[in-house]
Amino acid sequence: MINWKYIVTKLSEEYHSPGYGFWTEEHLRRSWKITFDFPPSRFHDPNDMHGNFATLFDFLATIANLDNVTDQEKIEKMVILLENIADKIDITTINKVLVKGGYEVPLPEPDDSLASTSVNSMHQQVIANCAKFFKQGHFFTCVNEACKAYNKAVQQKSGSDKDGNELMFAVLGNKGKLRFNAGSTETEKNEFEGFQFMSAGIMKMFRNPTSHETALSGKINKQECLEILGIISYMFRQLDKSTLIS
Fold first, then answer.
1. pTM of structure
2. Per DSSP, what are the bridge partners of residue 179?
């Protein structure tokens, strides 16, 4: 029989510690609202638990007490919640807790190779600049490095010393120096204008926030990181196709 109280207690002890990031109770509650469509319940003993530990215990215990949900689904929901609040998660440690708590189906160890996360591997520039941070679970830094690498690649290929949003609007688009099509049809013009706006969007939406926020205040989980890197990887491939015109 699974000892859910043991599992919930040990995971709460592990993940409320600074070693997994200085998340706040507000961040935890916001992550819950985004992820789940049911409210958390109170389970902790106020004489024994306080602060973030008590809140995380309540949230994990709520999942453990769900009806009409398999044990595997409960574990998966717990892991999703932990991924959303922690800078990184340790599947090996989680598996040890699960086994001691009577859950004998270990979670699969993650393959953190960026090249194996999708059918088509990430662009080599993304792998070169981000793989180390991704494997370490530093997803916020990972996105920042990918954006910086893309910005630098556009600078180098265009020969421009402009930066960020200004750079993308100066050297891309129908009047820019870099082209990956002839721009002779309306479709080609729209395609390249879209490339310009997407490149500028990467700077506005991903690079600027990661440059201006600290890694502790800006939260990007593993799934979000992979999705952002996928966008940047695609843009790198389009940039590879482009040529510099006089």
1. 0.56
2. 243
